[in-house]
Design goal:
Helices cover 56% and strands 16% of the residues. Strand 3 and strand 4 form a beta hairpin. The mean pLDDT is 86. It contains four helices and six strands. Its main location: cytoplasm.
């Protein structure tokens, strides 16, 4: 069994689930939290960079975030990135500082955030399926090279599919829990 590595596939699928959990932690539930801006990427210096690499994010008040941009030329792109991130935040520019008041969660906003949680979950499911596809391709390649037999390939494919189903169930459970949290249920 040369190329097929179940542990590597499991590690990569776990990475997708953990990434989803990190993204979901950034969805707000009514309080200012610096992880709220973790998914925001800013196009600066010809590349997309996380907001935390061009600015300091803090929560000076329970309903306010403050973003201190280090380079004055990056204030505009940071403002644009926060507005277009789909978080429902409108920064107030104050020199090199962006102030983000956290509005109350209306029923409409709660539904939008629940929908965003669903989108994050779908991205995680796609990432998990891509890992599955890589594993299946590796198995087919090994079979063509004569490293494993057809029966072994089918057995391993069943294992990979079971692992995929388990990871997708974990991702769905995390997203469902966050949606309930957002909707106040």
């Amino acid at each position: 069994m040369a190329q097929f590595d179940k542990k590597d596939l499991e590690r990569r699928m776990n990475g997708a689930v953990e990434s989803l959990k990190g993204d979901l932690s950034g969805l707000r539930t009514g309080r200012a939290n610096t992880t709220l801006l973790d998914p925001v990427t800013v196009e600066v210096y010809g590349a997309h960079m996380p907001l935390t690499q061009i600015a300091t994010v803090s929560a000076p008040e329970p309903r306010m975030l403050s973003v201190q941009v280090w380079d004055k030329s990056n204030v505009g792109p940071a403002d644009k990135a926060i507005r277009s991130a789909g978080l429902g935040l409108n920064p107030i520019v104050d020199g090199q500082t962006l102030r983000l008041p956290i509005p109350d969660l209306t029923e409409e906003r709660r539904k939008e955030l629940a929908k965003l949680a669903g989108q994050y979950a779908e991205k995680a499911r796609i990432a998990i399926r891509n890992v599955r596809r890589d594993g299946m391709d590796s198995l087919k390649t090994d079979e063509k090279k004569g490293v494993i037999s057809e029966d072994e390939r089918k057995r391993f494919e069943t294992e990979v599919q079971k692992l995929t189903d388990d990871m997708i169930a974990q991702a769905d459970a995390a997203a469902t829990q966050k949606e309930k949290e957002i909707l106040g249920q």
